[in-house]
Structure formats: C-alpha cells, structure tokens
Amino acid sequence: MTAVRLYRTMALIREFETAASRLMASGELAGFLHLSIGQEAVAAGVCDVLGPADYLTTTHRGHGHCLAKGADPRRMLAELFARATGYCGGRSGSMHVADPALGILGANAIVGAGVPIALGGALAAQVLGEPRVAVTFFGEGAVAEGVIHESLNLAALSRLPIVFVCENNGYAEMTPSSTHLRASSVTEYARPHHIPAESVDGNDVLAVRDAAQRAVDRARSGDGPTLLECRTYRWHGHFEGDAQGYRTTAEVDLWRARDPLTVLRKNVDGLNGQFDDIDRDCADEIAEATVWARAQPPAALESLTDHVYRAQEVG
Ligand SMILES: Cc1ncc(C[n+]2csc(CCOP(=O)(O)OP(=O)(O)O)c2C)c(N)n1
Ligand SMILES: [Mg+2]
After folding, report:
1. DSSP class of residue 57?
2. Which of 17, 46, 144, 187 is 20 to 30 A from 289, comparing alpha carbons?
3. 247: exposed, middle or buried (Cβ count in 10 Å: 0-12, 13-18, 19+)
4. Helix (H) or strand (E) holding 277
5. Which protein residues touch ligand 1 with a CB less than 6 Å away?
6. Which residues on neighbouring strands pair with residue 176, listed in sequence order?
C-alpha cells in the first residue's frame, strides 16, 4: 500500500540520520555531516515513482535520496564509518555516496555539480533508446549557479527525460533564500526555458509523490523535462555542529509541528497501528546496521591509491 510504503521510507531515513547525528556527536564519525531530518517527504515521494534503472544524483544532503532509491543502510553507515565495505570503500564519507547498480550516479559536495551529471545520464538514455529517467536533487542555494541554467536549457532543447527537483529549505548554509534570489518561487526559472514547473508542499509526501509521478510520466513518454520545487525545512543545522545563530527556535518549532511523518499520519485514516510498528522496525534495523557497520574493517592503507588515475610512467 502506497501510504505504508512511503511512511516506511521516511521512518527509515529519520532513524538513519538520527543515528548518524548521535554517532557524530559521540566522535565516532569524521568529516562533515549534513542531515535532511524534516525533509524526508521529498526523498520518499520522488523516489517512490522511480524504478531501479532510473538515474539519480544528489547533494551534500543526500542520505535520504540514496536510501529512498534502495541503498542498504548498512553499507551507507559503513561508508560513514570509513569502512572497506561501505559504498565507496570508505573513501567518500557522507557526501559522495554512489552506486551505479542502483542508478545512484553520486552525491556531490560541489553545489550544483550533480545536475549536469544527471543531464548526461538523461542524454545517454535518450541516445541509447533506453526507457530510463534521470532525477537530480539540488537545493535552492544552487539556483544561482550557471550550470543549472545551462542544464535547463539543454534539457529543454533536446526534450531530455529528466526531472529537476529543487528542495527549497529556505537556507543555503546560513543565508536565507530571500537574500540571494529575487524570484519568490524557483519555478520561475523554468519559464524562460519553456519547461513545465510545479511548486509543492515538500512536507506532504502524497503531494510530492503525485507531482513526481506527473513529471516522471512526462519524461518517460518523451515529453521532456520538468522542474519541481518542494518547499520544506531542515530541522538540524546546515551541518552537525552549526551554531544556527541565523534562525530562531520559534521558526524551527513551527516546521517541527509540520513533521512530514505526522502529516502523513493525519492525511490517512486507520494506519497509526501499522505506522507505530514501522517506527519500531526501522529503529531495530538501524540499531542492527550500526553494530554491523562499526564492526567492519577499515579501508586498508595499501589500497589508498586504488581508483586514482595516474599518467603512465614513461620509461
Ligand atoms: C560551488 C560551491 N559553492 C559553495 C559551496 C559551499 N556550500 C556548501 S553547501 C552550501 C549551501 C547549499 O545550499 P542549498 O543548495 O540550498 O542546499 P541545502 O544545504 O540547503 O540542502 C554552500 C554554499 C560549495 N560546496 N560548492
Ligand atoms: Mg537550501
């Protein structure tokens, strides 16, 4: 059942990131950690209408998108722990998880940089006549990057099978969107490219799913790209450890009251018992995954230069 499946995906992301937050606070994880707690409905709603062969790219805040596309929480956690059995052999950490077998062409720490990679996936699918769709997630902080507009232009010109999903959470690091974008909605940037666009409540997973379904159907049937803006909010700081002096707790509380998991509970009848069971199952799954990941071997030092391209030595 759709609502149950969507709730499970959101609950799994919530548990995964809550665990990651604790592990970071206790000093077990290295590097930076950007959490999407509060934004789970976007990942769950969009990925629910994708198939395993479809492509996805994401950002520095991409755990939820990877999990919703089918990534194994155990290998995701192993990657965060820098273990050899992580998705990238412990080399990527949180921000560069990739798995071509799942169509995940990569998370990306460079703002906007995942977008042209998905565009390439969509172009390849079109040229090869494959029925794949590419979805690229980016934040509203990426909208002023030139590459976004070049990608929109190319996608429109070639009617590429791609969905541009902007997760508008109101902030780029510490900067509110009203101070770096004139448009009141990111959908306005689709208009000059003649790309259909929709703005949806990004905390309502059913609304996100419906809009994503329309966009993916359009892409799959050869009608080209769509831009989807999902308005949402991150509960945690930009990164774990962010002092958050740029916003008030009252503002955060307003959005916490619009928790996407609670919104779904309110929008469907008679499923609270099942949802409670899912909460427990996901907590157990992530607790088990954490124990497994922690016990995995670290990447071997001798493997440090594996996968590094070097010019061949000339004799
Ligand atoms: C090209 C580039 N410029 C700047 C940065 C530093 N940076 C990292 S995240 C971020 C803000 C991104 O905001 P947004 O796209 O809205 O995503 P969110 O963090 O809100 O999910 C910035 C400016 C970067 N990583 N790459
Ligand atoms: Mg943002």
Report:
1. E
2. 46
3. middle
4. helix 272-294
5. 59-61, 109-111, 139-142, 169, 171-173, 238
6. 171
Q: What angle do CA 261, 285, 10 make, to 5 degrees?
A: 20
| pLDDT, position 315 | 54
Report yes or no: 313 and 95 within 8 Å, Cβ to Cβ: no
Residues around ion ligand 2, judged by CB within 5 A, are: 139-141, 169, 172
**In the block, residue with structure tokens 């619009």:** 258
Q: Rounded to an integer, what distance in angstroms lies between the CA atom of residue 165 and that of residue 275? A: 27
- CATH T-level topology, domain 2-296: Rossmann fold (3.40.50)
By the 8 A CB rule, do 86 and 51 touch? Answer: no
Distance CA 96, CA 89 (A): 11
Helices (H), 59-191: 63-68, 73-80, 114-128, 146-157
**In tens digits, what is the pLDDT along the chain, a chain of 315 residues?**
999 999 999 999 999 999 999 999 999 999 999 999 999 999 999 999 999 999 999 999 999 999 999 999 999 999 999 999 999 999 999 999 999 999 999 999 999 999 999 999 999 999 999 999 999 999 999 999 999 999 999 999 999 999 999 999 999 999 999 999 999 999 999 999 999 999 999 999 999 999 999 999 999 999 999 999 999 999 999 999 999 999 999 999 999 999 999 999 999 999 999 999 999 999 999 999 999 999 999 988 898 888 888 766 655
Sort strands 162-168 and 171-172 into parallel, antiparallel or unpaired.
unpaired
- Between the alpha carbon of residue 250 and those of residues 58, 219, 235, the distances in Å are 29, 40, 12
Q: What ligand 1 atom has the least distance to the C-alpha of 36? A: 21
The residue whose two tokens read 């989807």 is 228
Q: Are 134 and 125 in contact (CB under 8 A)?
A: yes
Distances (CA, A) of 103 to 127, 168, 210: 17, 24, 22
